[in-house]
């Protein structure tokens, strides 16, 4: 019972549990089941399957995640947009795709782009350059008096922090 | 895919099937043989569910990378789009891509069948950001586009505005179903009035009810709209090439090949 009381990972717990029961009861290794498995036998089979699954997933996580069977729910949960959480004050990396005089149109991987004023000394920001932004809102919407739906500006709002220096990775990065 | 029977039956009323005229044909193909070949060419694609294999053109990952699943905020949501939404995350609607996959496949399959039968396809979008893209897409697949102001009687008053006997489009594809003031595009209602089937990309703030083949998806991001344009262009070109192949296979000469009414 000392082994069961220790706080260990689920894998080791299951191995210990199944090995204890293997030693104590000799009925588990009877080959293919003759009839419907019941009670303890069903639980034991299930634990074996779970143990094998954890072992295989620990061994090869890359094989399953890059395979073509990834469902929409899995893709969504692992996407940077969801992992980021609330958009308020999140620092992201964007890419300038259009420049109109002093306005920079920056795409950071969300539904909409954002428009920022070019800061005073930064003349090096051309279409294609990467910049760091602090997001305020992913979509500027508001409900006006008398309206049944929100009015949307089809834009995001962000504060331009500056150009992204090459090599300073590790920031939260959104894919296009 | 068994195409929507309603649309084809109605098309039959307005544009009856005509045997192709073999003027200028040098080989002696009897008329009965030509009509038999024509029937075979027209009926063979209807036997298989995905004759043009449009399901191979895109995958869930492509849709996801093009940000097709991103919808507007919760306050902009249209009540009738709720069945197509996966959920709402921090006030942003997420469109269910599993449903989008099915709807997009149906829409592309229908477009392919229309293009195969020589139908006229009209691309409509009132988004000025994508106007040029839509026009070049239409040009590349040999079809038509209308990305400017929609005059009131364009479809409903065509005989008076453009002269008698004008041929209307057989399919209208809306890359965005809203106009510049966030109301439903007039073309959707007019196409329904004139019994013209429509394919439309409906975002979470659009009304999908009058669109024949709605495709729930993002219509605001350039990546998503480029994906749709590419898919429609590939489908239409594929269908037209297939038609040329089938005609060569069934022995009709190049002189008899003309734009047929179905």
TrEMBL record, chain A:
Protein name per Swiss-Prot or TrEMBL: Uncharacterized protein
Pfam families for the chain: MRP-S35 (PF10246)
UniProt superkingdom: Eukaryota
Annotated gene: MRPS28
InterPro entries: Ribosomal_bS1m (IPR019375)
GO cellular component: mitochondrial small ribosomal subunit
From TrEMBL, chain B:
Signal peptide: none
One example of a Gene Ontology biological process annotation: translation
Protein's cellular compartments: Mitochondrion
PROSITE patterns in UniProt: RIBOSOMAL_S2_1 (PS00962)
Gene3D superfamilies attached to this UniProt entry: Glucose-6-phosphate isomerase like protein, domain 1
GO function terms (MF aspect): structural constituent of ribosome
Gene Ontology annotations for the cellular component aspect, listed alphabetically: mitochondrial inner membrane; mitochondrial small ribosomal subunit
Keyword Ribosomal protein assigned: yes
Key words of the record: Mitochondrion, Ribonucleoprotein, Ribosomal protein
UniProt cross-references to HAMAP family, sorted A to Z: Ribosomal_uS2_B (MF_00291_B)
Family membership: Belongs to the universal ribosomal protein uS2 family.
Its job: Required for mitoribosome formation and stability, and mitochondrial translation.
Protein's name in the database: Small ribosomal subunit protein uS2m
High-level lineage: Eukaryota, Metazoa, Chordata, Craniata, Vertebrata
């Amino acid at each position: 019972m000392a082994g069961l009381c220790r706080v260990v990972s689920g894998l080791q717990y299951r191995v210990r549990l199944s090995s204890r029961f293997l030693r104590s009861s000799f009925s588990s290794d009877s080959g293919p089941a003759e009839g419907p498995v019941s009670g303890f036998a069903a639980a034991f089979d299930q634990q074996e399957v779970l143990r094998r699954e954890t072992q295989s997933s620990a061994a090869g996580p890359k094989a399953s995640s890059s395979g073509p069977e990834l469902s929409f729910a899995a893709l969504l949960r692992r996407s940077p947009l969801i992992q980021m959480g609330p958009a308020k004050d999140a620092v992201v990396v964007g890419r300038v795709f259009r420049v109109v005089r002093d306005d920079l149109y920056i795409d950071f991987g969300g539904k909409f782009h954002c428009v920022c004023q070019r800061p005073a000394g930064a003349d090096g920001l051309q279409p294609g350059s990467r910049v760091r932004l602090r997001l305020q809102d992913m979509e500027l919407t508001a409900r006006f008096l008398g309206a049944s739906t929100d009015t949307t500006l089809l834009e995001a709002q962000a504060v331009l922090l500056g150009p992204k220096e090459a090599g300073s990775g590790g920031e939260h990065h959104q894919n296009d | 895919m068994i195409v929507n029977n309603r649309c084809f039956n109605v098309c039959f009323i307005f544009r009856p099937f005509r045997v192709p005229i073999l003027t200028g044909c040098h080989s002696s193909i009897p008329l009965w043989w030509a009509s038999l070949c024509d029937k075979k060419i027209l009926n063979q694609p209807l036997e298989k569910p995905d004759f043009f294999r449009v399901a191979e053109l895109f995958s869930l990952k492509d849709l996801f990378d093009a940000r097709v699943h991103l919808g507007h905020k919760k306050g902009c949501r249209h009540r009738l789009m709720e069945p197509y939404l996966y959920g709402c995350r921090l006030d942003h609607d997420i469109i269910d891509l599993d449903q989008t996959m099915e709807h997009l496949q149906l829409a592309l399959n229908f477009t392919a069948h229309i293009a195969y039968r020589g139908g006229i396809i009209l691309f409509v979008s009132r988004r000025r950001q994508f106007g040029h893209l839509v026009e070049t897409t239409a040009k590349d697949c040999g079809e038509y586009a209308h990305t400017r102001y929609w005059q009131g009687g364009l479809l409903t008053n065509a005989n008076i505005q453009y002269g008698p006997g004008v041929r209307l489009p057989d399919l209208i594809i809306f890359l965005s179903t809203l106009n510049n003031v966030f109301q439903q595009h007039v073309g959707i209602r007019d196409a329904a009035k004139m019994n013209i089937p429509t394919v439309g990309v409906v975002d979470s703030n659009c009304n999908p009810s009058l669109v024949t083949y709605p495709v729930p998806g993002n219509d605001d991001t350039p990546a998503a709209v480029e994906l749709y344009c590419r898919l429609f262009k590939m489908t239409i070109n594929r269908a037209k090439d297939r038609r040329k192949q089938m005609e060569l296979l069934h022995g009709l000469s190049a002189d008899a090949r003309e734009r047929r009414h179905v």
